[in-house]
Design a protein that fits this description.
GMP Synthetase, Chain A, domain 3; four-stranded mixed β-sheet; single chain; alpha+beta
């Protein structure tokens, strides 16, 4: 079980770091990545500084072009946009298979 947990933690960390790199730290107000091993699914929760359709479309395009191809056959990915004060970003909702990235 420890190996599975370590794999989950590594996947969440790597995916989060890729999101920061590809989406741009300057665009992200909050980023939270959660992995569910039973479903082999990673969910990426994003809050952008600019809450516009254009900004979300740019991030979504980077997600489709740069991130999704890296995980085909490994895990399912899901990208979701939220406002920064959404409960999804609350620490009480997090598990050992999730990681929040602080944006400054």
């Amino acid at each position: 079980m420890t190996d599975k947990l370590s794999e989950s933690e590594a996947l969440v960390t790597t995916l989060g770091e890729l999101c920061v790199d590809y989406f741009g730290k300057e665009n992200l107000q909050k980023l939270f990545v959660e992995y569910t091993p039973a479903l082999e699914q990673a969910v990426i929760y994003v809050a952008l500084w600019e809450q516009s359709n254009e900004a979300m479309e740019k991030i979504f395009q980077k997600y489709i072009d740069e991130i999704v191809p890296l995980y085909i056959g490994e895990t399912m990915l899901d990208l979701r946009f939220f406002v920064a004060d959404s409960p999804v970003f609350a620490a009480s909702n997090h598990s050992s298979k999730s990681k929040t990235y602080a944006m400054a």
